[in-house]
Every structure is written in C-alpha cells, then in structure tokens.
Amino acid sequence: MLAPWQPLLEWWFGPGKSPQAVADDKSTLWFGKHHDDEARERFGDLCEQALAGGLDEWQQSPQGWLGLILLLDQLPRMIHRDTPLSFEGDRRAQVVAMQGLQQDWDYQLLPIQRVFVLLVLEHAEVLDWQNLSVERYQLLLDEQPEANRRLFEGFLDYAEQHQRVIERFGRFPHRNLMLGRPSTSEEMDFLLEPGSRF
CA spacing 20 to 30 A to 129: which of 1, 58, 97, 98? Predict the structure, then answer.
C-alpha cells in the first residue's frame, strides 16, 4: 500500500538518479511560480491539514517526516504565495525539522532530500538556526563526491546569503510589507540592492 506522503515526494523529487538530475528536472517546481495551481489542486487539502496541526503520524518515519516538512515549509509558499499565510507553517516546520535532526533522520534521506530539511532552518528569522543551517549545508557539501559539489556549493552559498541578512537585520526585510511590519531606512535601502529578496 502506498504511503500517504509518497505521491508528494514523487512529485517533488521525481525519478532522477543523481542530485544534479533531480535538480535539473525539478528546479522550476522548487524555485519558480508556475506550479502553484498544481500544488493547490494536488496537495492543498494535505497542506491545510498540516497547517492546522494534523498529520503527526507522518513523523513516524524519515520519509513521512520529510513529507510533513514539505507540507509545512514549501507548499504554503506556493499555495499562499505573496500572502502572510505563506509563512503560516514555519514555526511548526522548525519544531518538526529539529526533532528529526536530533534523531539523525536526515542521514536516512538522499542528499538532495536533505536540502529541503535544511531549508526550514534557512527560512527562520533566528540567527542560531541560520548558523546551524550553514553548518549543516557545509557538512552536506563535504560528504559529496566531486560530481555533486558544484550543486551543493550553490545550496551552501544561498544559505550563507540568508545567514548574513539575519545577522544584519534579525529578520528578512523583504517580508516586512507582506507581514505588515514597518521597514527601517536601512532595510529600505537594502531592498533596493540586487539579490536582497529571496
């Protein structure tokens, strides 16, 4: 019998044999805006259950844990894009991610899957978690064979960019308008710079 999280993981990661093949196939899904309707239609109900505190039973295996993390961290950013609800699952995602990391469940996932566990920390407006994100991405990179290093160097670089923003501002200034937070003059100047919005 198919595990309830399996269709989500198959959609998110596809059949690629290597991390680069998966990234080549799925990067527009992960980092674009063209699959939001598909995400809503296929997984909207599960996402809402997760946001409401449900699907705890998914945390009984590393694969289910990863599926729940996607529903809390990635899917809301697609289904509720450009609204405050896109961050609605972040707090629970952080708790769920840390619980699994403490059990080393990430080491039971493929390297490309581990990236999306660490993205939860990268999305946090908490410097300690940003530091842990960078530390874990560095470890993940160190484990990769030469063929994978360029891809994982990119993931680490992006994590370091997030870390620097939180170190400087204590929050992501590009979220301020959406969340109704007033921006400081320094933040407004920063938002005029290229690459200031993730």
Answer: 58
